[in-house]
Amino acid sequence: LVAAGGVICAVGLGISVVGDLDLDDGSAYVSGRQLSGVAGDDELSATWQSRLQSRGACIHHQLDADYASGKTVAISGRLVTGAGPAAASSVAAMSTHVLQALGKL
């Protein structure tokens, strides 16, 4: 999907899968990208946040009303991520905008 020019979307801990993607040159796909998705104070969230940051990602999240409302969404090139289940519809809407900007819709 990355090589084909597609848009990758992930919500919540779903970005953990994106964190393990490598490009053809061996670099981490998330390196230098803005992400929103690992938003929690539990051990699992902390583990994945550390893993993503070690691969070069910049994580944005807030444990407040924005997180609960689904407003915590990050767009970084062809990667759209959101923090928590409430962000799913916002991620879908933003991915549509990205696809339109790329001329794929």
Automatic annotation (TrEMBL):
Q: Which InterPro entries match?
A: Class_I_gatase-like
SUPFAM superfamilies, from UniProt?
A: Class I glutamine amidotransferase-like
Q: What is this protein called?
A: DJ-1/PfpI domain-containing protein
Q: Which organism is it from?
A: Coccolithus braarudii
